[in-house]
Design brief:
single chain, about 170 residues, alpha+beta, Thiol Ester Dehydrase, Chain A
């Protein structure tokens, strides 16, 4: 988090990165980690109308190859993506795409997730002056360092001085 001087002894918090601050090959370790609870999994599953009993029926799940409920993979994606926002997309104008989502290992209630994003490519936008396109791969690991998810994400990011917060700062 950087801070901008507003006046003597006054600062405004700023988070996220401008296009210029991304470098290919950089890896951002997203912290803190996030422990997924049974309540998280149950509420998310019900909220999204996913009725697969493997997510919330312990007796059903006992007979599966996992032996216990697994976390809804869309919840895992939502949490991991959320963990990456401060480093990757806090200033973003838009998500342009998500691809290559893989789930190499299950996530269980009580697992703690940690994530990191690596900058794969960046380029200035051809059609939008003062903006650029950044692609990252994000990987999530459980507390035992087992890879549980990875995906590629592409975002449209403003150049320095052209983020929404820059306009707000200029107006206030």
């Amino acid at each position: 988090m950087t801070e901008k001087t507003r006046s003597t002894n006054r600062y405004r918090a700023s988070s996220g990165r401008y296009f210029e601050e991304f470098s290919v090959g950089d890896i951002y370790e997203h912290r803190p980690g996030r422990t997924i609870t049974e309540a998280d999994n149950t509420w998310f599953t019900l909220l999204t109308m996913n009725q697969h009993p493997l997510h919330f029926d312990t007796e059903y799940a006992k007979h599966s190859e996992f032996g216990k409920p697994i976390v809804n993979s869309a919840l895992t994606l939502a949490i991991v993506a959320g963990m990456s926002v401060a480093d990757v997309s806090q200033k973003a104008i838009a998500n342009l795409g998500w691809t290559d989502i893989t789930l190499p290992a299950p996530v269980f209630n009580g697992d703690t997730l940690y994530a990191e994003s690596e900058v794969l490519e960046k380029r200035a936008s051809r059609s939008r002056p003062n903006q650029g396109i950044v692609s990252v791969t994000t990987r999530a690991f459980n507390q035992d360092k087992v890879l549980v998810m990875d995906y590629k994400r592409t975002v449209l990011v403003p150049n320095r001085g052209f983020a929404v917060e820059d306009r707000i700062t200029q107006e206030s």
